[in-house]
């Protein structure tokens, strides 16, 4: 009930291309969905987050698409750059019960020049 | 300069020894968390604390202990009972304001290696 499934496990994209990472959740009580970016040897950093009352949120080249009925959400990175090469984690939480996040297993993104 | 600090960055431990990882935050956050990260895996919650002098077990608490005597500090002790302690340990903190769009902020991590 608490699981968040993330795919793909790894992704290789050419510079300028679109990177797409998908996540699916089971617990319909989740009401907050952040994405984190992690570089090797560093802690994860919040990238972008969405609440289920909107279907899309865009910040610069990063967009979250949210499908409440399908219990799925995805991260799109437009015009992918080599500097975007990192591991990306989706997560979900029930804000009304505190901020205890359930994380996906991560996607390692490599953007080739 | 607000944030979360973890020390040390690298830690080596002999088998059978307890070791304590430090986590300090100056973000005035009520909640703090400890995660373990293994290669190719996601973050797994060890312990969390939503208020001073109170904490709860996460998904993989066995072999670990914590304390929360101060709002700013949430140290994690890896005991000799933890069978496979070599991992990257991450501390995080967050506000308990449910209306906030904020979420957990992470420290830089401590890499623990058991020799």
Kindly describe this structure.
The complex is a heterodimer of chains A (113) and B (115). Chain A has no helices and eleven strands. Chain A has strands spanning 4-7, 10-14, 19-25, 33-38, 45-50, 56-59, 62-67, 72-77, 86-92, 102-103, 107-112. In chain A, strand 6 (56-59) and strand 7 form a beta hairpin. Chain A is globular. The termini of chain A are far apart. Chain B contains no helices and eleven strands. In chain B, the strands form two sheets. In chain B, strands 2, 4, 5, 6, 9, 10 and 11 form a seven-stranded mixed sheet that branches. A four-stranded antiparallel sheet of chain B has the order 1-3-8-7, with no helix packed on it. Chain B is globular and about 45 Å long. Classes of the chains: A mainly beta (113), B mainly beta (115). The A-B interface holds A 6, 9, 32, 34, 36, 41-46, 49, 51, 89, 91, 93, 95-96, 98-101, 103-106 and B 4, 6, 31, 33, 40-43, 45, 48, 50, 90, 92, 94-96, 98, 100-101, 103-109, 111.
Task: Please name the defining characteristics of this protein.
heterodimer, A: 113 residues, mainly beta, 6-stranded mixed beta sheet, 5-stranded antiparallel beta sheet, B: 115 residues, 7-stranded mixed beta sheet, 4-stranded antiparallel beta sheet, 11 strands, 0% helix
Give a brief outline of the structure.
Chain A is an all-beta fold. Chain A has strands at 4-7, 10-14, 19-25, 33-38, 45-50, 56-59, 62-67, 72-77, 86-92, 102-103, 107-112.
